[in-house]
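Quick one: VOC family protein from Massilia aerilata, structure tokens please.
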Amino acid sequence: MKVTVSIDVPSIEAGLKFFGEAFGFSEASRPHPGYALLSAGEATIGLVAKPAGSHPAKGSDDVRRYERHWTPVHIDFRVEDFEATLAKALGAGAKTEQVHRVAGYPPVAFCSDPFGHGFCIVGLQPFIMETE
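--- reply ---
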């Protein structure tokens, strides 16, 4: 089984720009004009172009919005170089909401992408306090 997480974005191009600059994803295929598969290493994500204000399901009163919003599901990007990845994500348009650097534990940054979706950047190595 292979699992792909798909992310609603206002446009494929905007999603490609952010996820490419922040995490090194590139377009692997576009099986539909409004859907692109991106890959980086062994990771694959899908981008689904859905305009702001559109309904997520038939009969739903809710609408898609791309300002910061809460959802019970988010992606964790587990990375070798936490600080460099966080800097790239911020440079690409992400926002940092909290950063935890606790000695002996991997660092974690709670962030949101330019489309309002929450995600985390998690280091693979424990954080080490620098001594003076």
